[in-house]
């Protein structure tokens, strides 16, 4: 049982129901890409001297750590 309040959940569910399957899928891709970019930007900020290869290694390590479990 989720104990966090979700005051806008009804609006969220209504919005999702109004979308076509294609729109929901495209939104999922959009949110996934946005999340990926936020993680990469955060890693670049945290490791300013890192090469892109090192950033990618950190990125993949974090994905592996979080895969199928809360991180």
Main sheet?
Answer: none
Overall geometry comes to elongated
- Summing up helix and strand content along with how strands pair, one would put the structural category as mainly alpha
Give the total of beta strands. Answer: 0
Instruction: Give the helix level as a range of percent.
Output: over 70%
User: Span between N and C termini?
Assistant: 19 Å
Computed Rg: 17 Å
Structure annotation, total helices: 3
Structure, briefly:
The protein has 71 residues and is an all-alpha fold. It has helices spanning 9-18, 21-46, 52-66. The chain is elongated.
Key features of this structure:
mainly alpha; 72% helix; 3 helices; 71 residues; single chain; elongated
Fold and architecture overview:
The structure is a single chain. The chain has 71 residues and is an all-alpha fold. The protein has a domain at 23-71. 72% of the residues lie in helices and 0% in strands. The chain has helices spanning 9-18, 21-46, 52-66. Helix 2 (21-46) packs across helix 3 (52-66).
What is the secondary structure topology, with strand pairs?
Layout lengths: L8 H10 L2 H26 L5 H15 L5
């Amino acid at each position: 049982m989720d104990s966090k309040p979700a005051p806008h959940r009804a609006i969220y569910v209504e919005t999702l129901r109004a979308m076509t399957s294609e729109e929901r899928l495209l939104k999922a891709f959009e949110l996934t890409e946005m999340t990926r970019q936020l993680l990469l930007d955060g890693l670049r900020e945290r490791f300013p001297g890192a090469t892109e290869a090192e950033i990618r290694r950190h990125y993949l390590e974090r994905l592996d750590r979080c895969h199928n479990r809360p991180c």
